[in-house]
Amino acid sequence: MTNRILLLSFVLLFALSCKKETPMSFASETITEADMAICKNVSCPEVTVSYVEIFGDEIISEKINTKIKSYILNALYLGDEENDPQATSITEAISGFIEMYRTDKDEFPDMVGEYFAEVSVREDYVSDMLISFEMRTYLFTGGAHGYGSTIFMNINPLSGEEIPTEKLFKDKTAFTAFAEKKFREAYQIGEDEPINNTGFWFEDDVFSLPETIGFTEENVILRYNQYDIASYADGPIELEIPLQEALPYLTVK
Question: Does a structural domain hold residue 129?
């Protein structure tokens, strides 16, 4: 009897050890105002939300999908910045944006321009060590111009957790010096000239990495959004560094 139990235990352990990890997959989803019930008989502002949904290991995919959803809910939230969005789903967040437009339109009937929202999340780079998501938002809610931003979210695919920017590099100081050299070359700033010589706004005239760094199959992307280091009129400032050149500085690949 004891031998049978031991044999069954061995078979079970062997089966579990041979169980393959569930492969991760990505599915693209798009929701627009045309899909919303509140827009069936009444005109609505244009809203487009495009994102990826992750499938695979249940725990890991849930962590990543929750982060993606949280970004979208916050992007569409027009309430008090001190409060969190009340929406718990993407469709609720879209409805909230539309309802806020209708409230503002009723209060200010002469308001010029329709509200507009475009939010997208896509995977730009996928490897065994890293998934890099590009997350874009552009909103127009009145005023002289809209507001747009792009950030990157870098995820460890083995845990589903976000990788802090400082953990992407073996030596952040060394990478910063390397990136500054590339930045000066790209924007024709002499090695001995102040980094702000051509009109940039780096604090204390010292080059610094942006808050958001992303990856593609070919490049490491350093993205400075509007107002980060230049005026709104200058638009976002982006530096692409060939991935192969950056690899010696990276902890991921």
Answer: yes
